[in-house]
Amino acid sequence: MPDICLCLTAETMAQNNALFRQYRSCIDMVELRVDLLSDAEQATLRADPELAVREFHGVDSILTVRRKIDGGSWKRSEVERIALLEHMLPAGFTSIDVEADQVGLSDRLSLIASARAAGVTVIASRHYMEYVPTDLDSELQRLSAIGDYAKIAARPNGIADFRRLLHAARAHAGPHVVLGMGSYGVASRIMGHTFGNRFTFSSAADVQQAASGHISPDVLQTLYAHGETGSATRYFAVAGDPIAHSKSPEYHNRRFRADGLNALYVPFRVDDFDEFMELARELPLSGISVTVPHKESAARAAATVNEGVTATRACNTLIRQSDGSYRGVNTDIEGFLSAIRTRLSTFRGATVLGAGGAARAAVYALASEGVPVLVCNRTLSRAQTLVAELGEILRDEGQSTTLSAAALPGDGTDLGAYGDLIVQTSSVGMHPDHEGDPIPAYRFCGTETVYDIIYTPPMTPILKRAQQAGCAIVNGSGMFDAQADAQYRLFRTVLP
Ligand code: NAP
User: Fold this and answer.
1) Rounded to an integer, what distance in angstroms lies between the CA atom of residue 363 and that of residue 369?
2) What is the pTM (predicted TM-score) of this model?
């Protein structure tokens, strides 16, 4: 299992030592980023290099002075940087990070020779701050020939880049660390075992991150079960964009732990769902939660689907079958109804705002319960299509129902009986859109029940307005919990 390395990024050693003590119980290594120390603190260490490692008892320590082009803050010349590294090397560090790009490498080879002579492990590193290079395999080979560890940190700009990093890491036999920076790379920091990484870098919460996408050591250890995963671990994931706000990793990992299962649930920011499914088959992923904007793509990607997916054309759960294909299930329908089931009989009609995947689940659920539904969407034609398609499906199922479509209600709109329940299913108001209200001009009477299926934030602008007008309000937390519980029960079916 890869070790957790805490990057120390404070301006003073006193602050770094405090961070070390704070996270000591969940880390195996530290990396001292000397370039981030203040000028005064660097001068102090130059005078007494041993101060740099004095407090790091019982852990390995990496000496790093990062250049600006590699995401660091070193302000002076390259000659001074190498001289500082040479000067600090004997202080007691167990490893040194040496940038191993070709430009000026000859100047750094003597540093590498000094490190080797002193028994200090050399991490030969490359940083690609904006992209993932095409020649990963040969670059890893070259780095392995220079150092004891080959390290590549590169920024994926999509899930295809993430796959290339994974392929290169898996193909490289030598000791390595291959990490994806930024939001598309987060999973590489969690699934270190899958990448064959020897360690993973992390940053303390609430301090400057050493690189974008770092996760704090305590979150790696508790939420992502660092130290417990291995070759027998089954992987699950949530795929969406945006994904950072998702409560799903916390929900499912907590339940896996509570049930004592060797399973890990990982968030993936996904731009291209078909590419993600290639990755899912390669890893492989045993189960996948699918969220905005990929539910319709997931329905197409599934080899077989349940009736909820057929009806809504939206799939929020994929379960791996023994032949490697995926079965699609929609647990949003069940989840949606659970939050309002006890009040259903009081609604003469309902308005659903939005016509995406979640709207299809809400409309199908309400109509199946005999509630007439008016679907209002920014793009009217999409609402009309949804009404026509779901109407046909419900009629085929033998259900008599009233569905109609309209534009989003504005000032002066009287929804009549359709106003008993207003369901907000658009992505407007979802984190990070804290201002958004899909019907800013609509005036609530105060008699409506307003149900926003968004759960982050728990109080969206439309819910605030509705509450101020005296309406009953429901947020998406209950729906989230109920759909996640149904999903978890499906995940359990593919675990030994
Ligand atoms: P989706 O398929 O991408 O649909 C998005 C909908 O939002 C479309 O109807 C779109 O209208 C509308 N929209 C987007 N921007 C808009 C704007 N600026 N003004 C007006 N309408 C706008 O997404 P989805 O899968 O249906 O999910 C929608 C929301 O439901 C997300 O916030 C998601 O987190 C939430 N959700 C919650 C749960 C839960 O468990 N609580 C479960 C599922 C989904 P156009 O057709 O005009 O583009």
Assistant:
1) 10
2) 0.90
